[in-house]
Structure formats: C-alpha cells, structure tokens
C-alpha cells in the first residue's frame, strides 16, 4: 500500500528497531499509520543553561523574554472558519438524509485539517524552545482577565479554540522537554500582566493597552514582554 511519509523514520536504517505500527481510520475515511521505532539513546547537547519565559497571549500566540514573537497561525484560523460554515450547512440538512451524511463526512474532514495544521504549528513552536533553551517557564493555566476575552476578534468560540491550543502547547513542550532532558517550569499565572517586572508595582491594564508603562519606576516595554519577564522571574524564584 503506498504511503505518504510525514517525516523520515529517525535513526539509520540498520539501527532502527520498529517496535509497533498503529493504523488509524478516521471518521473522514482517512488512514494514518504511526511507526514506533527505537533508536540508540543519544541525549541532546545542552544549550548552556539558557532560560526563557514565554507568555501565551491573545494578540500573538506567544511572546518570550528575548522578544521573539510567534503570531497566531493564520491557516488554523482560516480552517476554523471553514469548519464553522460546514457545521452550519450540516445543521440545515434533513436528519438521517443522504445529504446530511455526506456533509457530516465533509465536516469531519475539515475538523481533521484544523487539528493537523494546529499540531504542525505547535510541533514547530515547541521544538524551537526545546532546541534553544534548558529551562522553559510558562504559566500553568491562562486565567486571563475576562475583559480580554471581550476582544471582538476572540469572543466565544475562538476563545475556546485558543484555550485548547494553549493547553496543547504546554503538553507538547513538556513531553519534548522530557525527552531532551530540558526543564519546564509552570508558574502561577496571577498578575503576570499587571505586575511591573522591575519594581513589582501592580496596576490594572485593559486589553487595548499594549505597552507596559510603570508609573512608579518608569519601566516601559511591550505588554507581553513584561509578562514573559515576570513568568521567568517566578520560575527562578521557585
Ligand atoms: Zn516599575
């Protein structure tokens, strides 16, 4: 049966021991094959004890303490829109009809496309951090103030899509870090946006305020960078 390899099976052919093959048949009638292999254990070299704090936020997918920004993946949002349209179309078809069944398969197929694109993005994202840092600090949950979810672009459903992506991002980075011998520190998310990184002064911000300006010490940086710095500081403190 011809297959499409998403990536080469790791390791040199002679050293590979294929331990298991998992075949999955999805509701959209696509077939996936997972090849589980064993390669000689080669620990990845350390990066030289570099540490990074990452803020997962609404404006961009993430901002880190080095100022690196990953924008929200555009193709995921586009596919999510297509998914909603297909779901609406399905709900208008007569229950139990042939057309409804066909539409259900179409919905399942788009759903899988959304998942695949998001996973691709999250693999690239988490791989970047695990390859570049030994200590990675993240918030253990995103309890962003409710006012932030009122942002027009991110109301309701899109917000729950984001929550799912954030949750998955943590899971991806944790298992990759564990495999590479890196350390992931999940910190308390309370007030990471409001506290001043330099002096600790706490001041409320609304979402429109994209810059952190501290009236006490004058520290002025992009809002999400200040949050990332607080996240890293919390990981360093304990
Ligand atoms: Zn300050």
Could you characterize the architecture of this molecule?
With 238 residues, the chain is an alpha/beta fold. The chain is 41% helix and 18% strand. It is built from five helices and nine strands. The strands form three sheets. Strands 5-4-3-6-7 form a five-stranded mixed beta sheet, sandwiched between helices. A two-stranded antiparallel sheet has the order 1-2. β3 (51-56) and β4 form a beta hairpin. α1 (74-92) runs antiparallel to α2 (98-132) and α2 (98-132) packs across α4 (157-180). The longest helix is centred in the middle third of the chain and has 35 residues, at 98-132. 23% of the residues are buried. The structure holds zinc ion. The site of zinc ion (ZN) has 8 residues, from loops.
* CATH arch. level architecture of the largest domain: 2-Layer Sandwich
Radius of gyration (CA) equals 21 Å
Bound ligands, named by name, code or SMILES: zinc ion
Report the biggest beta sheet as strand number plus sense, adding barrel if it closes: 5 strands, mixed
Q: State the end-to-end distance.
A: 53 Å
Strand order of the largest sheet: 5-4-3-6-7
Strand content: 15-25%
Which runs of at least 5 residues are low in confidence (pLDDT < 50)?
145-152
User: What share of the residues lie within helices?
Assistant: 40-55%
Q: Given the C-alpha coordinates, what overall shape results? A: flat
Mean pLDDT across all residues, rounded? Answer: 83
How is the CATH topology of the largest domain named? Answer: Nucleotidyltransferase, domain 5
Q: Which CATH class of the largest domain is shown?
A: Alpha Beta
The assigned structural class equals alpha/beta
Overall structural domain count = 2
H/E order of the elements? EEEEEHHEHHEEEH
């Amino acid at each position: 049966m011809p297959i499409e390899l998403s990536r080469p099976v790791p390791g040199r052919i002679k050293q590979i021991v294929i331990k298991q093959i998992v075949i999955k048949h999805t509701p959209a009638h696509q077939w996936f094959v997972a090849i589980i292999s064993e390669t000689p254990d080669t620990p990845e070299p350390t990066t030289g004890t570099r540490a990074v704090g990452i803020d997962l936020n609404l404006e961009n997918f993430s901002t880190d303490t080095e100022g690196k920004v990953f924008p929200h993946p555009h193709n995921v949002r586009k596919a999510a829109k297509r998914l909603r349209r297909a779901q609406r179309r399905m709900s208008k078809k007569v229950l139990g009809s042939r057309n409804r069944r066909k539409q259900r398969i179409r919905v399942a197929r788009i759903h899988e496309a959304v998942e695949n694109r998001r996973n691709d993005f999250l693999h690239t994202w988490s791989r970047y951090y695990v390859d570049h840092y030994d200590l990675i600090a993240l918030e253990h949950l995103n309890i962003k103030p409710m006012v932030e979810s009122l942002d027009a672009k991110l109301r309701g459903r899109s917000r729950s899509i984001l929550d799912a992506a954030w949750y998955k991002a943590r899971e991806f980075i944790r298992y990759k870090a564990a495999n590479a011998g890196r350390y992931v520190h999940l910190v308390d998310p309370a007030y990471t946006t409001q506290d001043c990184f330099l002096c600790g002064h706490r001041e409320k911000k609304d979402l429109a305020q994209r810059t952190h300006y501290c009236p006490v010490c004058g520290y002025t940086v992009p809002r999400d960078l200040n949050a990332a710095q607080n996240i890293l500081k919390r990981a360093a403190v304990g």
